[in-house]
Amino acid sequence: MDFLYTISRKNSSRVSSNQECLYHGQSLCSLSSRNIAAFTTMTELDDNNGKTRGCHVYVMDLNMPWHTHKVLSSKHNITALEWDLPGDKLVVADTAGNVQLWMFKDHVLNDWVLIGSTHFPGEHILGAAWFHNGKKTGLVTEKKDSIHYSEKFNHLVFAPSVRQFGGRAAEGVLVVSTTGMVGVVMITKDLQNPICYSTESLGNTRHRITAVDLCYGKNGHFLVAVSSGSICLPIRCYRILVRKIDDKCTITSQALPSFFLQDGTPKDNSTTVTHLKFVVREDADSLVIAANSENGGFVEVWELREKSQPVHKLFQPKNLEPFKTVIWQYQSQYRCQSPVTAIATTKLSIVTTLPPPSYVIIALADSSVHCLNRLDCLKEVALSSLTMGWRQDEPSNKYFKNSVSIAHMDLSWLGCVLLACDTHGNLYLYKLLPDGTTGVLSNGTSMSLSYACTLLEYCLVTGLDWLDILLCLRSSMIEALCERLDVSFNRQSQPTQQYHYIQFLCIKTSLYRMLVSGQNKATDLSSLLMIHSVATAFKSLLRPSDLISHDKGPAESLTMAITDVVTDQDVDTIDTVLFHLDAKEFTVEPSTLQSLQPLIQWVADLALNLLARLPEQRMQMKTGGYELLKDRKALNIIRELLVIIRTWGLLRPSCLPVFTRCVDNLDVLALLYRLLSKLLQPNSDTQQQQLMDDSLIAITH
Questions:
Q1: pTM for this structure?
Q2: Would the CA dihedral through 186, 189, 190, 192 be positive or negative?
Q3: Which of 61, 468, 502, 685 gives 412 a disulfide partner, CB atoms 3.0 to 4.6 angstroms apart?
């Protein structure tokens, strides 16, 4: 567990020790599937006088933690803060019973809009969970070395929490309060009534709840575990079903087997249950319980098992199977010398292995963080502390106060980084060791090449953000990882490559950006991504003049025309290609063409830049990785765009790119097309020498 960075508020030198209590409070943090962090503070981040005492919700990108954006401020303490599965909506619940649903506005991180809110009078909300959308992809352990993504990753059977008309998954939140109330807030997409809500009791009677956790069942239900705090009382579990009927939602609660903590635990009034956490949020079979006493704390893991019960032979027919029931069984325990202040567990199980490999991370009151292996009887595999993150040449007491401890923690979706917040609202990010999901690790201390490649492929298939993986990579393995990822992607079928092409380019670009020697490759990949986007936008504006008589659209006709011209090396002018095209199919509204001028200028500038880099490339030694000048497909796309630009320039000359010419009558577009055509012809070494002629030197942009 390595410390990466910390985000601390700016403290003023005028702040006295009496004012430090204004910043102290219970903070929360939550990581989304896009690696966006949401966290709470008791005062605003730029407040040095404590005048904004309350509770404030901020968001930030883990890649740019210095840019924080406030979502909302509340006078009540916020007790639940959760992201939905796609990572674009946020639920905020407080001690007064207010539940608010927020989302990005126009996909911008610093602009938020309130979807809807509701109020449950007299209720202190303890926990919240979004509805599951039914989408779950897992790595098949037996086929982890398979070539094809479709064999390696399978869509697992997992029912949505709430179904709408046609079986479509509904969006909403399930909340649980301290009085045993379970409430549902569902998004209706109705402008007049954007949300609807319903309430029900967990059990037949209400009872006090101090700790709660929620997880998803594969049949579309929720599993809720609650505790009343006393170690003498059982840990109760409930099965919650939410159904939408017409415009209303109904809640059904069913009691499941409960259990007491291990018999050897001293059951006195000083020992209280403080935290409940399911080991995996999509696996309702394992539960972690933390309890504190005067002498320290302990953590226990319990699993839900199916057990056969003996039945008297008079009541058990011979042709029937033995009677089976489900009970909770004690698995392991971890004792610590200090009270437990926070627990974090795995959000997502990548593999289909049962039980899935996972971590249980606990934070203690002495500011230490312990990483425990769930499959190895809670054996400690890593240890860190808030005091270990500071620079060695600076006194730690300059920053660290004994009164500060970790208040809340959250793991990233892939389990590679841990986000923690202390009681003053400061954030800490830690890098975790891999949990061994996909195979053998490199000495058990760093991520192996095969493990990293599998995780990136999983992000490629599922759409999850991969920043937490990048934070765990060694710079020496990035180039080999890019090559392996590229080889694996090229082995996929053509439809699969086309579907994941954009995401694949983004992943490769981010990998090369981590290398000092890979900046040119990252730039080329960014340009390739832009070329693909511009070509898609330009070709989508083209419409065939007669759908009946044309078997192919204008884009296909353009590709065929350029290919036919290339076969004749003596005819490589842009006007020759225009002669083979129907001008009516390339007609676009003049106002639309003028709005595309910046993109047209970018295409021309990129073509000039590529040709200007030819002499420099010839002088460089042979290097690996991607180079745009060697991508024949990308160069052909640029030529197609130049032809489209030339055609549109005949309709509206003001949309053409602007050049600074040494010769007034120089046709730059025609020259660019001709030079790119020579670059694509065979015997590239000879042709590159021919490109260095007077016409190329005369171009200065």
A1: 0.87
A2: positive
A3: 468
